[in-house]
Amino acid sequence: MTTTTAERAPRRPRPGRDGQPLVLTQRRIWIIFSALVSGMLLASLDQTIVSTAMPTIVGELGGVEHQAWITTAYLLATTIVMPVYGKFGDVLGRRNLFLIAIGLFTLASIGCAVADSFWLFVFFRAMQGLGGGGLMILSQAIIADIVPASERGKYMGPIGGIFGLSAVAGPLLGGFFVDHMTWQWAFYINIPIGVAAFAIAWFALTLPSKRAERRIDVLGVVLLSAATTCLIFFSEFGGNTDHGWGAPETWAWGVGLLVTASAFVLTEARAEDPIIPLHLFRSPIFLNATAIGFTLGLGMFSALAFMPTFLQMASGTSAAESGLLMLPMMAGMMTTSIWSGLRITKTGTYKRFPIAGSLLTITAMILFTTLSAQTPVWLICGFLLLLGAGLGLIMQVVVLVVQNSVPAAQVGTATSTNNYFREAGAALGVAIFGAMFTNRLSENLTDVFSSAGASPEAAAEASSTLDPQTMDQLPQALRDGIVGAYADSLAPVFWYLVPFLGLAFVLALTLKQIPLSDTAGMVARGEALAADDPAAQELDGEGSASSVDEEASRPDPTEEDEPAPSSRS
């Protein structure tokens, strides 16, 4: 910052006091970053464990034909709360919200473990989404607060390492719990991790808190939640054979979507401090990057949600093995994410990475359409490696582009809005393409059991309660039929995803390249001092609390010249 106010306001900061700036030394950045890593580990580890255990969970709870709701409920809740966490973080500060997100996620994990029915389990998965949405959004926003965009790329490596660790530990733990204990331990494991993450964040996450200066957009939050819910139910009902696109109840949700979305736009245009400011969409860079995230979510995450199920049932692998077979995807994602982050930091350019990433994902998706029960495992791993490499070139880069395109005061709002549309696309994709998969699967499995001599009622019951353990006890001929049913149900769905990824490629081609900011968000807002700032060096080269407190106790010879408190950012 070069303004007088920004220079003077942080000269005598007192760490931990609301509204007071900190000194962002490298040591402090890494301490804060450790708290973020613990929260991200909690959320990412849960996803890999649950994906591995899902076939067993839905089999025991009797929800095979509704298994898409496990993913949809989590994504729906995550999508709804993302803008809330982002905006409230900008307005109130992010520390307390981060602690709330950890606590909520941990408590919901206990609920998932003790759930004794499928729909109760889905309810607690939705509660987990309320916490998980905050963990991811606040982590990304806090990184933007403490690290300049020009240096942020190199932090993608440790973040990629967290997801890599989850990719290794999650399948191993999930498979171990399913094969040797019970699936409930996939959620009990979150309790010690959540407690540890909360403790680390409590002591290490030294960020300023704020007070809202303008009226909070409560009506906008309500309307956005209603519109998101209508969107998911509209797509879910339309893709379900029990309702279909011609059903009145399906279009009732569609009308609800139009009404609530229109009311939301009108509300945001008049709100004093909107939850999603409409002026963000006047930025071509923000609009382009957000559209890339939406199409990527629509075309990609629906495929990822059901890949472990395919590997377990269609390839005949165990829960642990199916999770480990996802490792090539995570290896590809980690490699390209770390490499692209380092290249962005070195060169200051980013446009070529989403272009290359979208081409790789399109190629991988086309290859997935060839999957069958006879596809060799090593070939499936190769497809997953290619898919992960494409994702690694897009995911973190798009977030960086969005954060770099808005003022520092709106970095949380912009981050959450971008993630909101990506998750909305993911939830929509999972609902539509998941319904296509499960409807095909239910019909195919019923035909398999009916052909084996089961009555229609018995065939339907067997299809809804099928899990890998039950399948192992069936005759070989029946198992072969089930394997074919899974393969024939999932592989054709990938063709429907290719056009959306093609659109992401076109959007990446038109993404504008602008210089990356060299100022951290908190520094730009006057809430912190950079370590190399002369004022920070006067306090303490390491920004220690004792030095700052000592300096804060000294009289200020220029105090009469300080601007009024209301003029500080």
Overview of the molecule:
This protein has 569 residues and is mainly alpha-helical. It is 72% helix and 1% strand. The protein has 25 helices and 2 strands. It has a two-stranded parallel sheet with strand order 1-2. The chain starts with a helix and ends in a 17-residue tail after the last helix.
Map the helices and strands:
Elements: H1 4-8, E1 22-24, H2 26-61, H3 68-92, H4 95-114, H5 118-146, H6 149-152, H7 156-180, H8 185-188, H9 190-204, H10 218-238, H11 248-270, H12 284-313, H13 319-324, H14 327-347, H15 352-368, H16 377-392, H17 395-404, H18 411-451, H19 456-464, H20 468-472, H21 476-490, H22 498-509, H23 521-524, E2 528-530, H24 534-539, H25 545-552
Parallel strand pairs: 1-2
Helix pairs in contact: 2-5, 2-7, 2-9, 2-12, 3-5, 3-10, 3-18, 4-5, 4-9, 5-18, 7-14, 10-11, 10-18, 12-17, 12-18, 12-22, 14-16, 15-16, 15-22, 17-18, 18-19, 18-21
Strand content: under 5%
Order of helices and strands: HEHHHHHHHHHHHHHHHHHHHHHHEHH
Derived from helix and strand composition plus strand pairing, the structural class reads mainly alpha
The major beta sheet can be summarized as: 2 strands, parallel
Number of helices: 25
Radius of gyration over all CA atoms, rounded: 25 Å
Q: Helical proportion?
A: over 70%
Mean pLDDT: 75
Termini separation comes to: 12 Å
Q: Which strand order does the major sheet show? A: 1-2
Low-pLDDT stretches are 1-20, 541-569
Shape estimate: globular
- The tally of strands reads 2
Quick overview:
The chain is mainly α. It has helices spanning 4-8, 26-61, 68-92, 95-114, 118-146, 149-152, 156-180, 185-188, 190-204, 218-238, 248-270, 284-313, 319-324, 327-347, 352-368, 377-392, 395-404, 411-451, 456-464, 468-472, 476-490, 498-509, 521-524, 534-539, 545-552; strands at residues 22-24, 528-530.
